[in-house]
Design brief:
This protein has six helices and twelve strands. It has helices at about 20-25, 65-75, 90-100, 120, 170-180, 225-230; strands at about 5-10, 45-50, 55-60, 80-85, 105-110, 110-115, 125-130, 160-170, 185-190, 195, 200-205, 210-220. The strands form two sheets. Strands 2-3-1-4-7-6-5 form a seven-stranded mixed beta sheet. The protein has a five-stranded mixed beta sheet with strand order 9-10-11-8-12. The chain is α+β, with helices and mostly antiparallel strands and about 240 residues long. Helix 1 (about 20-25) runs antiparallel to helix 6.
Length: about 240
C-alpha cells in the first residue's frame, strides 16, 4: 500500500478576488477556511474542498514575497505547490535531501507537521510532505483547512480532483525526478505521456516549453454546465 496521498494543491493569483469567487461559482465549491497563519509569509488565502482534497489559492499582500516572485518567473501561471500527506514527512524529506533536494521550510504546528522542499530542486513546483498526528483519515482533522472543513464539501457539480498536470521540455526526466522524490515509479501511458499514480490522484507529466504545474483535471457531474458557467463569468474553456 502506498503511504502517500494528494492532500492539497496550492495556486497563486495576483489577488484573491475575483479568482476565488469565480472558482467557487464555476466549479460549485465553497470556501471552508481562510488561514491567518499565511500572513507571516506576506500572503492571504482561501481553501475550497474538492472531496478530501483541498484546493487553495494564495495571493501576495505585500511586495517581495516568494509567491509574488514565483508569479513573475512563471509568467503568471499559478501552479505553486503539490501537498501530499504521509506517515513520516521527515524521513521522506531526508531521502529527498540525500538526492540534493533541499528543505525550504518546516511547519510545525502540532498536531500538524509539514516539510516543504525547495521548488528549484523539485522542478516545476514546490512539493510539501505533511502529517497530522492522530488523523490518518483523509476526511479527518486537517488544521490548514480549519476546524470544520468537511462541512464545506459539495459534490453536486464537482465530484473529484483526479489529476495534476506538470509540463517540461524533458517530461521523462521530470517524471523520473518526481518519482525519485516521492518514491513512485513513473509509467508511460498508451498515449506516451509519463504518469505517477497515487491512491487518490495521478500526476501527469507532458511536453511543454518550461517546467511548471500546468493544469488540474476534475471529475464533474455535467461538463457542459461547468463550461457554460465559466463562459458566463468571462472565462474561456
Amino acid at each position: 500500500m502506498i503511504d502517500l496521498h494528494l492532500r492539497q494543491i496550492c495556486l497563486v493569483a495576483p489577488r484573491l478576488a475575483p479568482v476565488v469567487s469565480d472558482i467557487a461559482a464555476i466549479m460549485g465549491l465553497d470556501v471552508c477556511y481562510r488561514d491567518p497563519h499565511v500572513g507571516k509569509y506576506g500572503l492571504e488565502n482561501a481553501l475550497l474542498p474538492v472531496g478530501p482534497i483541498l484546493l487553495e489559492v494564495v495571493a501576495p499582500i505585500r511586495d517581495g514575497t516568494a509567491a509574488g516572485r514565483f508569479l513573475e518567473k512563471s509568467g503568471g501561471r499559478g501552479g505553486y505547490m503539490a501537498i501530499l500527506t504521509c506517515k513520516d514527512p521527515d524521513s521522506r524529506a531526508a531521502r529527498a535531501n540525500a538526492m540534493g533536494v533541499r528543505t525550504a521550510n518546516v511547519i510545525d504546528h502540532p498536531p500538524y507537521h509539514g516539510v516543504q522542499l525547495h521548488p528549484r530542486d523539485c522542478r516545476a513546483a514546490f512539493i510539501e510532505l505533511n502529517h497530522t498526528a492522530g488523523s490518518d483519515d483523509l476526511l479527518g482533522p486537517y488544521p490548514p483547512a480549519g476546524p470544520d472543513w468537511t462541512r464545506a464539501i459539495r459534490s453536486d457539480v464537482t465530484r473529484a480532483l483526479t489529476e495534476v498536470a506538470l509540463q517540461s521540455p524533458e517530461p521523462a526526466s521530470l517524471a523520473a525526478h518526481w518519482g525519485r522524490i516521492l518514491d513512485l515509479a513513473p509509467a508511460t501511458r498508451a498515449d506516451g505521456v509519463q504518469q505517477l499514480t497515487l491512491p487518490n490522484a495521478r500526476i501527469r507529466v507532458e511536453p511543454g516549453e518550461r517546467e511548471l504545474m500546468s493544469g488540474l483535471t476534475f471529475l464533474v457531474a455535467d461538463a457542459a454546465r461547468v463550461a457554460d458557467a465559466a463562459r458566463a463569468r468571462g472565462d474561456r474553456m
